[in-house]
């Protein structure tokens, strides 16, 4: 059985999340064997235990990065984690082979609906175009790009509308199921 590491990159999961909180909670129910890292609660000062994080990555076969899509990429906390943990000599470079062959799955949400992310849409490009840096990140580390699970229309701003809240909760639960299915297929 694969060892699964799920890393939450939300900057304030408890206080300022709706969908990602539901997704992660559901994932813990359906994939209890996975290890879960909540960067915001584990590192509220943003000072990472690099050795610990690198060991977590070394021990995983499948790495799932769960995050809300902030300004067309990963949140600042996850980006800082990537900068400090995925360093030359560990994850890349002539001696950085620790992650070679590990599968990387990206799981993310956006407040904007999916239809906004298409050529000619409000966001100007399909969501795939925004993932090129993450695909290259996986390639540079020798990881296998396992694709992504994406759900849009999950705006925290809509949490006060009961009908939208119900729809978003359902969508977030389905997102978690899709992530679990994808992980099982790897």
What does this entry show, briefly?
Helix 2 packs across helix 8 (162-185). The protein is an alpha/beta fold and 186 residues long. It has helices at 13-16, 19-30, 39-42, 50-59, 76-85, 127-130, 132-140, 162-185, and strands spanning 4-8, 35-38, 62-68, 103-109, 144-151.
Structure description:
The protein is of the alpha/beta class. The protein has helices spanning 13-16, 19-30, 39-42, 50-59, 76-85, 127-130, 132-140, 162-185; strands at residues 4-8, 35-38, 62-68, 103-109, 144-151. The chain has a five-stranded parallel β-sheet with strand order 2-1-3-4-5, with helices on both faces. It starts with a strand and ends with a helix. The relative contact order is 0.19.
- Please tally the β strands and state the result: 5
Strand order of the largest sheet: 2-1-3-4-5
Our count of helices gives: 8
What class would the helix/strand composition place it in?
alpha/beta
Please tell me what the overall shape is: globular
Rg, Å, rounded:
16 Å
From the N-terminal CA to the C-terminal CA, the straight-line distance is 10 Å
Biggest sheet architecture: 5 strands, parallel
Strand content: 15-25%
Percent range of helical residues: 40-55%
Order of helices and strands: EHHEHHEHEHHEH
The overall pLDDT average reads: 95
**Spans of at least 5 consecutive residues with low confidence:** none
